[in-house]
Amino acid sequence: MSQETLSNLLKENRRFAPPQELAAAANVKADAYDEAAADRLGFWARQAERLSWAKPWEQVLDWSNPPFAKWFVGGELNAAYNCVDRHVEAGLGDRVAYHWEGEPGDTRTLTYADLQREVNKAANALLELGVRKGDRVAIYLPMIPELPISMLACARIGATHSVVFGGFSADALRTRIDDAQAKVVITADGGYRRGKPSALKATVDEAVKDTPSVEKVLVVRRTGEEVAWHERDLWWHEAVDRQSDRHEARPHDAEHPLFILYTSGTTGKPKGILHTTGGYLTQVAYTHWAVFDLKPESDVYWCSADIGWVTGHSYIVYGPLANAATSVLYEGTPDTPHRGRWWEIIAKYKVTIFYTAPTAIRTFMKWGEDIPAKYDLSSLRIIGSVGEPINPEAYVWYRHHIGADRCPVVDTWWQTETGAIMISPLPGVTEGKPGAAMHPLPGVVADVVDDTGTPVPNGGGGFLVLKEPWPAMLRTIWGDDERYVKTYWSRFEGMYFAGDGAKRDEDGDIWLLGRVDDVMLVSGHNISTTEVESALVSHPKVAEAAVTGATDPVTGQAIVAFVIPRGAAETEAEGEEFVKELRDHVAKTLGPIAKPRQILVVPELPKTRSGKIMRRLLRDVAEHRSLGDVTTLTDSSVMDLIAAKLPSAKPED
Ligand code: ATP
Ligand code: MG
Asked: What domains can be seen in the chain, in order of their start residue?
């Protein structure tokens, strides 16, 4: 971004107050903000009391060597004990931890007592394989119970896990295994996706040809498909099932490395984000309880993310389990065997809290509201969103068609690096605005600043920063302290730079405006991709939109938009009229400065495997350049389809 701060173009007047009943019984009330502001470290110390510590900490925060933080210094705890054993000891052994639903319709129910036995057996097996405290274990599994079981088994013995999303290629897996020097890889023959078995073991075989650190590969039998077998391979059912279901969990230091997670790589070479134990577990437990107003004895919670992403680590595994919640865990895709599968699952398990991503919501909008309308979603009471800015129109659709205008929507901003939710409405407190992440949570200090690091006034836009360390913050980039400092702490003195643009509205509430790298500079104005995309999506004929700035001889950059029409509008979408209608609509909504130079109707958008739009590839196409790194793209053939729509522009590779 240049000197000019980010423009604030979008005006939004809709407001949604919390339902009275929910507000009256909410876990967190408005006073939490003041309480935390008055004594931030005292506030986090109280949240840490949610956990069982084997040894109390001596100091809440050591920030004497920034940006290298130590939280709950001297304290000791075991993450697996906190997520499983202590609940069994408290008499909750029969409570369901996971209702697991396989894509083909097979199910498994794991109570906390079951989970304890399974985790203990897996921990004993890892020990037998020679895994010791401090070693790294790579986990490359589908969404089956063995995935959280493996993570907890590692945490139990003090091994650091590195979960790699099951959709990644052999190459991506190899670099991640190598970077972390993993000793063991846990995988499966495959998993079910789109109604078919999808192989995983072959990818691991390919990856570990070149990873000398790997001694053993532990393989879960899921699909029963044939796999190649090597000397280093062991079946899970042979190595784990025969183990004792008892194992004594020893405490680890609060700063013991819990996991490494590589960011999805929307913006370049993956970074191994390192999270440690005490602070991470404190903040994920607190935020899961506060943001979703979790009542563990009655709620059924479902987060539709993959555990391979941070959302799954924090809000399928560690947060919900630390809180003794009952969760749904689903293996497959939303459209198998039919497009109502997710709503069917919500009705079946009477899910009360649902957490998903804007990309999924926009897909459901495209498929049509008659699909969710066929299912009983009346059990829902809170619905959440994460991963990208949620366009106001998608928020309102979600609230209306899924939440029956009854459920608060919590739009949660956070990152792999932050470990836990940082900016979000509180469902019993906040009067929600569609598209706004609203306020930093109690105990979090966030701001929007200009180029010089000065806070912008209300109504202004700029860079999102975090001004105080927080318990679940990343501790470094694995093996690269220098890159950690350079990437996050060098842009603004003493502040964490998130890489996202944001604005404060007239009330001081925070709106996320997309990645700073994606901001468009048009005739001296910095325009956010999010606002233009939201304006396009607010047109009734548009389902999804992505915009990018392409070099323009007159305006510096010009806005090029790629849109997917909604089902019914598909036929007329080819015409000039449609494009003109959309350009005028954007100009009317945001002002003439935001009017796209060009609008291309496309069948698909390039997305990462976590479902986020990759705008830099669209910029490459719009500027007639060969494509940058496409390894994190779900489906690279999409780029050919898009390039074919652009007059005289084809990617060169
Ligand atoms: P990489 O860092 O490798 O490019 P990534 O940023 O997509 O990948 P994540 O850590 O999963 O990986 O995503 C965090 C980013 O997602 C945030 O920095 C922000 O850009 C976006 N994001 C997440 N939640 C929200 C939200 N509620 N509103 C707006 N943006 C969000
Ligand atoms: Mg990121």
From this structure: 523-645 (3.30.300.30)
